[in-house]
Amino acid sequence: MIYPNDVMNEVLRDEVGCGLFKSYLKTIYCSETLQFWLEIENFKANAPPATPTLSGPILAFSSAPIESSPSSSSSSPSSSSKNRPSSPSGKYLSQEELRVSAQNVFDKYLENGSEFELNIDAFSRELVRQALNQEIDSSLFDDVQKVVYESLWMDCFPPFTHTAAYHKYKQDTGKCHLPEFLRISFKKKSPKKDDIRMKTVTK
Amino acid sequence: MCSKKDASVDFLNSKKIDREIKKEAMEVQPLKLLLLGGGESGKSTIFKQIISFQDEKTKKENTPSSDSIVRNIYQNIVVSIQTLLDSLYLYDLEISYEDRERAKLIENISEHLEDLNQHTFISIAQDLKYFWAKEVVQNIYNNPNRLFNLNDSAEYFLNGIDKYAVPQYKPNQTDLLRVRVKTTGIVEADFSINELPFKLIDVGGQKNQRRKWIHCFQNITCVLFVTSINDYDTVLEEDINIKRLDDSLQIFREMVNSHWFEKSAFVLFLNKVDLFKQKIKKVPLSDHLKDFTGRNESFNETSQFIKNKFLHTNKNSERFIYHHFTCALDTEAIEVVFKSIQDTLLSSITEIL
């Protein structure tokens, strides 16, 4: 069974597809969701990984093979980007730089009444506000990014697939016919799958 | 004297003009129906209902695929159970070691909802059922003063886990109406009734989405304002300092008196009346609306009181506001309401013509 978010992930990984989706979101006044999602992908690439805690998302950040996990995450670009070989520690931004960049994101997308305010609950917002005063790592926006991702695939993507632009894209590129091995993301991963990463979305 | 060439150009031009006139005549401005109201009041449910009354093509274009509805249902169920499990910790309730192991399984999956598929869901279905049936979870769920927000369809889906946890499961109309997807942005659907084009517009209701509303305020034929009448004791998800009823009254006041809608018809849906009837038995209305002096157990008195609060915000004595007590899930009732709105609009149009 192909799930729509697998198709969406494929679109997000593709520069042309991502561009089309972005233009569509503009027409329904919803572009801040994808914009935020992409900015966080970029933020995560520049921030050190979180120190694994027992209850925390160990999986996402460990370099160990993911076979042990009951919920492998190969099909999600957000997770696969986390599995990218991390850049050497020197490549991360400093804590001060990260704080400035995180605060900017917060003011732009999360703060009450901000220009691109996301549709998230008060609790999630306050958690991030508190975390801004602590040591900043790449997991800072994880929960919010997850909510935004959910609303992208549950709310925005299905109507996008009914647009003429999408149909043309599908025909032109032959995209969105998933290779067999991507269809069942629950199955154990073969090493090949780790190579599937986003190409262009982090900008 | 005009040359042969000029004549042919003229001829082509006049053809072109003819065509444009024809085209213009065909492009009648659609009747625009705009759904407004706070978050989780039921706008999208009414949207889905109105779509379901239209022809097959409209339905197909505006309904998500069956696969994606199934996914949404799985997501709704896992999130609901996870919320209930989180609340166990919130209330400091002890759970056994074995239960904790089972809970961890669910937590792991709710951490990676983007990967939740049918296989995963079926593999944890028994654990989800186990927790939902647990007495302590039921107690928390049934506590009228519970501290967390569960969507109104949680119980419906949680009671049907067995039905959803089979590979051949196909969602029915009720499942489609019940599934919760938060609307972000602006959703439009075009269809025609008696050859007249209609445009139905749905929006996200949370405070943070309202900045987008202005984009669809122009030339609205009819505003369908939805409020969840049972939300007299709850606060906004996006701002816990604001009561849902106060917020809903506030936006209704702004909209009904807005210059944008001076010429628009106004319909007020006092929605979720089924839940309201249950709630007034458990949560006295006068506890939350101090100015209510009627009988708390009387549906008639409580519901009329809230209705009047809305209608009294209207400052324009010329304006008539249609109102309906509804349960958006009740297809037959919504169809009757929609038919009556449709008739009112059509008759007012023929009046103008």
TrEMBL record, chain A:
TM spans (from-to)? none
User: What's a Pfam family in this record?
Assistant: RGS
Q: What is this protein called?
A: RGS domain-containing protein
Q: Which domain of life is it from?
A: Eukaryota
Organism field: Polysphondylium violaceum
The record's Gene3D superfamilies line, in alphabetical order, gives: Regulator of G-protein Signalling 4, domain 2 (1.10.167.10)
Q: Which lineage do the record's taxonomy fields give for this organism?
A: Eukaryota, Amoebozoa, Evosea, Eumycetozoa, Dictyostelia
Region annotation (Disordered) ranges:
67-93
RGS domain residues are 7-170
Q: Where is the composition biased (Low complexity)?
A: 67-89
Signal sequence, renumbered to the chain: none
TrEMBL record, chain B:
Superkingdom classification of source: Eukaryota
Q: Look up the record and give one Gene Ontology term from the biological process aspect.
A: adenylate cyclase-modulating G protein-coupled receptor signaling pathway
A single Pfam family it belongs to is: G-alpha
**Where does the chain bind Mg(2+)?**
S44, T183
Does the UniProt entry include the keyword NAD? no
InterPro entries attached to this UniProt entry: Gprotein_alpha_su, GproteinA_insert, P-loop_NTPase
Q: Which UniProt keywords apply?
A: GTP-binding, Magnesium, Metal-binding, Nucleotide-binding, Transducer
This entry carries the following GO cellular component terms, namely:
cytoplasm; heterotrimeric G-protein complex
In this chain, GTP is annotated as bound at 40-45, 152-153, 177-183, 202-206, 271-274, 328
GO molecular function list = G protein-coupled receptor binding; G-protein beta/gamma-subunit complex binding; GTP binding; GTPase activity; metal ion binding
Sorted alphabetically, which PANTHER family does this protein's record hold?
A: GTP-BINDING PROTEIN ALPHA SUBUNIT, GUANINE NUCLEOTIDE-BINDING PROTEIN ALPHA-12 SUBUNIT
| Protein name, per record | Uncharacterized protein
